[in-house]
Amino acid sequence: MRGPREVFDRVAPLTPLIAAAATDPEIAALWPRDGDPRYTVQRAAATALVAKPGARPGLSADTAADLPFGLLSPELYLVFVRDRGWSPDEWERWAHATLHAQLCADGAAP
Which of 20, 37, 102, 107 has its CA at a distance of 20 to 30 angstroms from the CA of residue 73? Predict the structure, then answer.
């Protein structure tokens, strides 16, 4: 989870500004129309994950993509780190343990 955390430390505080700016027609025209690029990456990873022997039984690629897309969102990062006072290290451990429990066959925290 170090990768998302390092990105969120820098970018997540800008998310509300980007969302507000997107209501401007000129800025909205610059936003990708074919879906969120973050979801595209999560979906590709999820398709590979569900085919692996360690994936949670019965886990669909849709669910395997939705879980990290939501849990690794800059918005949720801000809720925990900025609004609730978690340290980035605490968020990182929680995100890793939660995704492991939801995506892996053993479901145990790593």
Answer: 107
**Whether the Cβ atoms of residue 99 and residue 71 lie closer than 8 Å to each other:** yes
Q: Please tell me the distance from the alpha carbon of residue 108 to that of residue 38, in angstroms, as a whole number.
A: 26
Tell me the domain boundaries of the chain: 2-103
- Burial zone of 4 (CB within 10 Å; 0-12 exposed, 13-18 middle, 19+ buried): buried
Give the mean pLDDT of the chain: 82
Q: Kindly report the length of the chain.
A: 110
Do 55 and 105 meet the contact criterion of CB atoms below 8 Å apart?
A: yes
Query: Bigger pLDDT: 70 or 17?
Result: 70
Token duo for residue 47:
């398709």
User: Could you give the maximum distance between any two Cα atoms of the chain, in Å?
Assistant: 48
**Residue 83 in tokens:** 């609004």
Residue 8 neighbours by CB distance under 10 Å: 25
Mean pLDDT calculated for residue range 89-94: 94
C-alpha span between 58 and 18 (Å, rounded): 37
